[in-house]
Amino acid sequence: MQPKTAWILYDFANSAFATTVMAGFFPLFFKQYWHGGDPVDSTFQLGLANAAASGLILVTAPLLGAVADQGRLHKRLLVGFALLGICATFALALLQAGMAPHALLCFGLGLVGFSGANVFYDSLLVEVAKPAEYERISSLGFALGYLGGGLLFALNVAMALKPQWFGLASSEQALRLAFASVAVWWLVFTLPLLWKVGEKPSRRLSLSLVGDAWRQVVRTLGHVRAHRPAFLFLVAYWFYIDGVDTIVRMAVDYGLAIGLGWKGLIAALLLVQFVGFPAAIAYGRLGEWIGAKRAILLGLAVYVAVTAFAAKLDSATEFYALAVLIGLVQGGVQALSRAYYAHLIPRHMAAEFFGFYNMLGKFAAVLGPLLVGVTGRLAGDPRAGIFSIVALFLIGGAVLLRVRPQVVAS
């Protein structure tokens, strides 16, 4: 197995958390089982949990990236954060009804593990692929992520809808088993990266290494500002990926809040995965043809239209239609953003620059869920909360237009 294949398989591994836990069953189980109270309040609490976990990544990602650069510890730190996420996800399967604070804690730790590992996963792109391959390899990673997350999610959906087919007593037992299955899936498909992506640490983790890393962060902050294309892109990304991540994390909660049935919502999420698999590959080709920047802007225009319409939808059929549209552009926007940024950064500082990339992306995921939760609570209407996300796509697109598509990295 080639290192680039092993790298791609990590997307196959961790996407199970993004689909089954983050987007699918956790919002459902939290609202109906662990919380069981006012739906507006549960949306608010879910938004706060997302914000807290994302805020922690905001604070630590640049320093962790610098530590990885200084000591060549990218893979070890990736595995460490992945194990945190795996253990926290497995713990969700053990929680009983009414344990909302415990559920939010485990979910938050799972998000920290998932997001923290991605700092180092993204930075390894420049190690396993050549610059001319960034768009293709990055898109293949997201495509395999949709496939992997979708396959396990399909199995978990079948278990939840027809538990008797699997010898299970209830849908509740099926959902518990689903959380455990994500932890096992995530662990198993991380192993190829551990075995095949080579990296020999140059320094041991120590206080002196952390001190050197902190000084590098300060220097790199100046470098990021000096690399104007990369800096402008990060500002744009900060805003528009907020909308993308918020829709992923809050869509099921929003559907439940406006009265749609959980079975239809879960089926729509499953539809996104299988539309997203070929669409991410096709979108990568589109990025090669018209340029990554233009392709990202096209995707953001679709998101604006989808979000505006979502504030008015009132049927499962309309939710399915929006799911298809999101599936067509979601993976492409994510993959091409990563590839476009890789072209704009210094190759030898990839982990630290990707630390800022993930920092801003996850900080945006602080703003998005808070916008949805707080706006919905103040207005007394979840539709107002979801509509607020449109502003993030518009601002992000406007700033992205100012980025010149030149290769700065060398």
UniProtKB/TrEMBL annotation:
Residues 215-410 form the Major facilitator superfamily (MFS) profile domain. The keyword Cytoplasm does not apply. The chain crosses the membrane at residues 7-30, 42-65, 77-96, 102-121, 142-161, 173-195, 230-252, 264-283, 295-313, 319-341, 353-372, 384-403. Keywords: Membrane, Transmembrane, Transmembrane helix, Transport. InterPro entries: Atg22-like (IPR024671), ATG22/LtaA_families (IPR050495), MFS_dom (IPR020846), MFS_trans_sf (IPR036259). It is a multi-pass membrane protein. Its main location: membrane. One of its GO terms (cellular component) is endomembrane system. GO terms for molecular function: transmembrane transporter activity. It comes from the Bacteria. It is found in: Endomembrane system. PANTHER family: AUTOPHAGY-RELATED PROTEIN 22. This is MFS transporter, UMF1 family.
